[in-house]
Amino acid sequence: PHTGTQEYEDGVPKIPTACITVEDAEMISRMASHGNTIVIHLEMGAKTYPDTDSFNTIAEVTGSKYPQQVVLVSGHLDSWDVGQGALDDGGGAFISWEALSLIKDLGLRPKRTLRLVLWTAEEQGGIGASQYYERHKANASNYSLVMESDSGAFLPTGLQFTGSDKARAIMKEVMSLLQPLNVTEVFSDGEGTDINFWIQAGVPGASLRDDLYKYFSFHHSHGDTMTVMDPKQMNVAAAVWAVVSYVVADMEEMLPRS
Ligand SMILES: [Zn+2]
């Protein structure tokens, strides 16, 4: 089955819910259209366990000229309990890791700090992201760009971006550097679960744009395994992530907020 969260308003009976995959729904539909009587045997094992400690994982390349200023790349380290979490969100976590790793291997150090955050407990409601924001929001004016990849890290078609018109124009120029990979589009809606606090505080935000149809074919199911990931596509996604984060971190000015 496809899995996910279920929330209840106060004061209503907490009736258990379940959902099935699109494939199973289509199979049941075909059986019904053949006139078959359908009997479904459903077993549910969902449980809520007590809270426990977990931690964001953070690494950074400290900026050479404006170390207190930050460009942040991120994905979440936890996953749903079914599957392996390869596309949700191993892909996003590891293209973010790879962006810093490539920049370090190339011996580059941008003017401002390039920070990797692998969020914890995204699936339980963005708990790691919320904790990080609470601890760092006093420094929000020093965040130039926050980036998150949480849609699989398949072959990207561009970048989703939220920010001022001036910042968008700069992002279009940055993305034009990726012409050799043919990934130059700047779309709207840069929001993502783990970076929304920052975007709401006025920090420009970006998300990787790729094939959401493929993402939701495997998302939160036993189908989310390493076999779904394509190393060549992940390399392109990592290249986009590295180029965008490095160039924005190395520009003389921060991205304009207005
Ligand atoms: Zn996710």
From TrEMBL:
Domain Peptidase M28 span(s) in chain numbering: 56-242
Superkingdom, taxonomy of origin: Eukaryota
Keyword set includes Ribonucleoprotein: no
Complexes and interactors: Homodimer. The monomeric form is inactive while the homodimer is active.
Molecular function as annotated in GO: carboxypeptidase activity; metal ion binding; metallodipeptidase activity
Protein name: Carboxypeptidase Q
Organism: Nannospalax galili
GO biological process terms on file: peptide catabolic process; proteolysis; thyroid hormone generation
Lineage, opening ranks: Eukaryota, Metazoa, Chordata, Craniata, Vertebrata
InterPro entries, per database record: CPQ (IPR039866), Peptidase_M28 (IPR007484)
GO cellular component: endoplasmic reticulum; extracellular space; Golgi apparatus; lysosome
Alphabetical UniProt keywords: Carboxypeptidase, Endoplasmic reticulum, Glycoprotein, Golgi apparatus, Hydrolase, Lysosome, Metal-binding, Metalloprotease, Protease, Secreted, Signal, Zinc, Zymogen
Stated family: Belongs to the peptidase M28 family.
Cited function: Carboxypeptidase that may play an important role in the hydrolysis of circulating peptides. Catalyzes the hydrolysis of dipeptides with unsubstituted terminals into amino acids. May play a role in the liberation of thyroxine hormone from its thyroglobulin (Tg) precursor.
Subcellular location: Endoplasmic reticulum; Golgi apparatus; Lysosome; Secreted
